[in-house]
Write a structure and sequence with these properties.
The protein is an alpha+beta fold and about 140 residues long. It contains 5 helices and 7 strands, in the order αβααββαβββαβ. A 7-stranded antiparallel beta sheet has the order 3-2-4-5-6-1-7, with helices on one face. The chain starts with a helix and ends with a strand.
Length: about 140
Amino acid sequence: MLTIDELIEKPYWVVDLLPKQVPNNSEGQYFKVEKYYLNHRTDICQKFINIILKLNCYYDIKVSHDGESWENNPAPELIAQGIKACVSHHPTKSTLFVLFETETSLIVIDNDSTYMTLYNPTSGLLELTRQLASAEGLFTWQPPN
């Protein structure tokens, strides 16, 4: 099994509010909009919870807050609590790792982001994530190389 450090070096997709990466030279006010969403993350948090719980219907998952101690298929309430704790307004950086061990894939949710990152997904996991994200009004895209 690959380590977290190895997985985050693999190809990745972003599950996001926006349909594609905002260019550096964008005329819009991305950082102000991002700050607004970071301060109003309740809806985003629920969307992340819905996606992870639904993925857990199809795949075993392991969840960790530190990347070292893992809980296999925690109760749905504990998954939701973990995502809420990660996405809440913590003064320090907080991360939630969701490992799909049989798929050798990883989802990372950081408390200073408005997106989830899916690393090294199999085609089946990627397609299912796309469908679930779309149902939540989110987009799944791969950054340009």
